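Sharing a chain and its predicted structure for anyone who wants a worked example. Both blocks are below, sequence first, tokens second.
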Amino acid sequence: TRFDVAGPSLTLSAELRTRPPVEASSGLTALVPGCGRAYDALALVEHGYTAVVALDLSPSACEAAREELKSSGSAVADHVEVRCGDFFAIEGGETFDMIWDCTFLCAIDPSVRERWAEQMRSLLAPRGELLTCVFPIGDREGGPPYAMSVPLVRSLLEPCGFHAAAVRDDLPLEEQHRRPGDELNSVLTRGTALISWRQA
């Protein structure tokens, strides 16, 4: 699909390289909504997260994710739970220490963006981190993916009690989100920013 980047997001991989591994004893959990083949979920467990939920609405995407994990050869692949379901239907007080949104917000209908922000607030643990890959930044009509911007994401999350702990809107070209077949300079018209959010 147009959303499949054939491996972990370049943006996530670069960010994880700047962070020390998560202590295995910490028991930290993560959620990757719109997980596709679960490349990013696997990257998070390999970084030390104890359990990661890879969530997708599409049964075929979930099956592809399970196959990808099985063939990955990773010793921690079984720490990823592939869950077929609706992001907006997660309830029961379940929370996560890290939520990674990459090409999920840009894929959902603009009419549910406020619900997206409210659900992020309810799913993030009190001291957790929401990490958003803001993509694609630029002028484009329609979608998905729908055009994103840092001010747009701020306008959604700040009213829900989030504050931007770090905003990286000057990512090197090689750290910006793209598919392997895309030219490096394609990011000039489909830019990427990375924002780390905490609850105020």
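Comments welcome. The helical segments are 10-17, 39-46, 59-71, 113-123, 150-157.
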